[in-house]
Amino acid sequence: MNISDFETHINNAQKQLAKMQDNIDQPPSSERETEAITALSISLEELHVALEELEQQNSELIVTRQELEKERQQYQNLFELAPDGYIVTDRNGIIQAANRSTEKLLQIRRDHLVGKPFILFICETSRQNFHNCLDSLPQTNEVQELELELRPRNGKLFTAGISLSVERDFRGNIVRLLWSIRDLSERIANEEKNRQQAALLDVATEAIIVSDLEDKITFWNPSAKDIYEWEETEVLGQNSMELWWQETLDRVAEAKQTAIAKGKWQGELKKYTKTGREVLVDSHWSVIRDHTDKPKSILIVDTDITEKKQLESQLFQSQRLESIGTLASGIAHDLNNILNPILGSVQILPRMMPQQNESCRKLTDLIETNAKRGANIIKQVLAFSRSEEGERRNLKLNSVIEEVEYLIQETFPKTINVVVNIPSDLWTIYANPTQIHQVLLNLCVNSRDAMPQGGTLMICAENRIVIEDYARKHLDAQVGAYVVLSIIDTGYGIPPQILERIFEPFFTTKEVYQGTGLGLFTTMGIVKSHGGFIEVSSELKCGTQFEIFLPAIEGEKIEPKVSKSALPEGKGELILVVDDEPDNLYMTQILLETSGYQVLIAKDGLEAIAIFEQHHSEIELVLMDMMMPNLDGATAIAKLVKIAPQIKIISLSGLATDYSLARNSKVKALLAKPITAESLLTTIKQVIQN
């Protein structure tokens, strides 16, 4: 009987009770009957109250049942729609239920999964872990975490993260097992990618630094340690501004502001290492943003370009010196052509006028001396250029240093203490003694000027081997043996902003009329022409050190022996003289004719070819100027050789180059203007005889 039937019976009883109460006005048949009616009325009322309570409980039960059904549906939806795979198995791992994600992971329909052992989908290499997990279930109620290799039915193996929980009955017996399955392939791939990126950060040659917006360092890779010399433990959490910026705070603040505003910044920055060493870096800044797109931190990638900038500066200096050398060579050519007839003529005059008085002889000697002096000055100006090599021989620096030491001891202020340290076993160099003397004297004079109140000047020399690592960092250095000449003073030093310019021509910090700015310029040219290079270091208020590297010779070179016999005379040989300078042409003609030769003259290459075609069978020798208009000497020589292959040629040039010799083997000698009478006549005699 349900609640509605129960309610019907109560209603019927109430109706009967009402009929009985209608008869209350009549005398009761007995007192007992009255009491029975009263008791029945109370019972009916109590039943009515109980009925209402039952109805309320029934309503509450219906609501509870609806809520339970709703929760069950929610849990079922969660089970079905969860991104991870969920399966339910019995104690032995037989699948009882599975969700949609499990279908995708194992690539098999759920109705085909139910009833199958879970172990069928576990790779053989992971099955022992699976068994160990099941064996440990009675001893624990905690969720177990493990990784298993799963094999889908039609797919490739993947690593799964497994979470296993146990459901027990009230007696503690295992009812079923709940398995959560998550594909770890993406996580593993990301971890591997992160490992690779971390390895790249470790091996990157750039300093990679991350700092927050308050400039606190949060990441510091090994190359940052190599460049800036701070260990990672020393800088993490530290303010980067306090580490290396020092004098460039404004520049860094600008970089940070630009990076935050535009997302990135790039430029060159000057920084300082732990030991105070200055480094120049090419710095790239990028802003790292959080999930709300707000700036979170700054990634800084610094490339050390200190060495690169030094090499660029050396290359620029070298190119600038080369350009000026080319200009100086052209000027020297013209000056040598001017000095050549002067020097030649003054040497011819005594032969043409042997009865000169004493005054004439002194004037002649004065002209000759000053012409030679002018020629030497031109050679010094050209010392930095490959156009003028000068006379060189095997040379020990000991003798040159001793000469300079004597000179400065006699002339320098006594407040300067000169200290010389030269080993006896210095290697030999192949050099021009006069030029090396000039280099050493120039540097010593500069040191003297840097110590007006006195100090110490040291001159040292040593043998040194330049290795590949050192040569790579110095533009002009080559691997090999060098003799290093060092000039060290205790003067006021050279400011860093000036140090880069000291080898520029006409650059000087001295007062007007006290310096020309050519001393170090010429010194650099001489050293480079000898295949060497110069290293300079200086510290304000402490002094300066110049190191001159001159290559040591690998083998003995044959030094020319100069014969000091009387001026040779000709025997009527016919010589063709070709020169575009009328004064040179006339002087050479007079010299040769007064020395027993016959002479034909031509003012350029075209005229020389025309004359040679007519007289090539008679001409014994050709003196050919190399630099002429219309047709230069090298081209004219090639034409002459075609006409008469046996012809002998001596080339003349205002520049002491040997490029023409390489073009034609018929060129027997090269003479640099200005040419002395002795040099010209001796060379002509040797070429004709040989």
Model description:
It is a single chain. The model is unreliable at 512-516, 555-564 and 658-662 (pLDDT under 50). The protein has 20 helices and 22 strands. A hairpin with a 5-residue loop joins β8 (264-272) and β9 (278-289). It folds into 6 domains: 3-77; 82-188, PAS domain (Beta-Lactamase); 204-304, PAS domain (Beta-Lactamase, 2-Layer Sandwich); 309-384; 393-551, 2-Layer Sandwich (Heat Shock Protein 90); 574-689, Response regulator (Rossmann fold, 3-Layer(aba) Sandwich), CATH 3.40.50. The chain is of the alpha+beta class. Helices cover 44% and strands 23% of the residues.
In short:
By secondary structure, the chain is an alpha+beta fold. It is built from 20 helices and 22 strands. Strands 2-1-5-4-3 form a five-stranded antiparallel sheet. The protein has a five-stranded antiparallel sheet with strand order 7-6-10-9-8.
Strand content: 15-25%
- Helix proportion: 40-55%
Gross morphology is elongated
| Structure class | alpha+beta
Give me the number of helical elements. Answer: 20
| CATH superfamily caption of the largest domain | Histidine kinase-like ATPase, C-terminal domain
CATH topology label of the largest domain: Heat Shock Protein 90
